[in-house]
Design a protein that fits this description.
Keywords: Cell cycle, Cell division, RNA-binding. The protein is α+β, with helices and mostly antiparallel strands and 260 residues long. The chain has 7 helices and 15 strands.
């Protein structure tokens, strides 16, 4: 990948940028659509930025339902028109004894990953408070159906479900307009969840914070557009848009908050 492009992104994002460049080249050279695995919002932004530099390519995303967080990307030449089936996403309902058991997001994800599949093959995990569903790549669907018979001590069965039956998530993202003294991670957490800066700093330092699905223990880490910050027991914050500075030098921003 061109060094001029890499300088606009973080150093740790360069391997992902290089993998995107390989997919873009593959689509150009073979003149066919190329499908990614599930991408988080920051990765979606990076891939979109790179594909938009190509005049003869487009990219589209699908995660199984509107406003999904994790999505598969499809890079394709101008002749191609993608359909839902091209994204090769499967939706499963988790059947379990609702009256006698309680499932949690972390338990479900842990069980799925414990079967040996990669995180990038699993999309969103959804609940309406009682029912649970998850999305995955088509390639691993049959494997998971055979492998998963319990989550913790709870007996379960996985039922393949149509996208028209996807449940509405219990919690919804809410956009907020705010001003920030900086885009430090602890400052964003403090603002998004209305807690003190010191409390936010401790959460980060004690490794209770993930940035784009990876632990980050640096309170001073600079957050940028489309980053997702997950804070244990609090929820998630996404920096949706930066909107310049005020006369007093503070930063205007739109953040999306998903509280637990």
């Amino acid at each position: 990948m061109n060094k001029n492009i890499e300088q606009h992104f973080r150093k740790e994002e360069v391997p992902f940028i290089d993998s995107c460049a390989d997919l873009i080249d593959e689509s150009i050279n073979q003149y066919r659509p190329i499908l990614t695995k599930f991408l988080n919002p920051r990765q979606v932004y990076i891939l979109t930025t790179l594909v938009n530099r190509q005049s003869d390519l487009s990219v589209a995303f699908f995660g199984g339902y509107p406003n999904s967080e994790m999505k598969r990307g499809l890079i394709y030449p101008e002749y191609f028109e993608p359909s839902e089936d091209d994204y090769q996403v499967k939706l499963f309902e988790i059947r379990y004894p609702v009256k006698f058991s309680k499932l949690r997001h972390s338990k479900i994800l842990g069980t799925l990953l414990g079967s040996g599949v990669e995180r990038s093959t699993i999309g969103d995990i959804l609940t309406d408070g009682t029912r649970w569903q998850f999305l995955c790549t088509r390639e691993i669907a049959d494997f998971l159906k055979m492998q998963i018979s319990s989550i913790g001590k709870t007996k379960v069965s996985l039922i393949e479900t149509e996208f028209s039956d996807v449940i509405t998530p219990e919690n919804e993202w809410r956009d907020e307009s705010t001003t920030l003294s900086s885009f430090r991670m602890d400052n964003l957490i403090s603002e998004g969840f209305n807690i003190s800066r010191n409390d936010a700093k401790e959460l980060v330092s004690h490794q209770k914070v993930h940035l784009n699905w990876a632990v980050n223990s640096r309170p001073d880490y600079e957050i940028t557009t489309h980053d997702v910050v997950s804070v244990r027991r609090f929820g998630r914050i996404r920096l949706k848009r930066q909107e310049g500075q005020t006369k007093k030098g503070k930063y205007r921003a739109i953040i999306s908050v998903l509280k637990k």
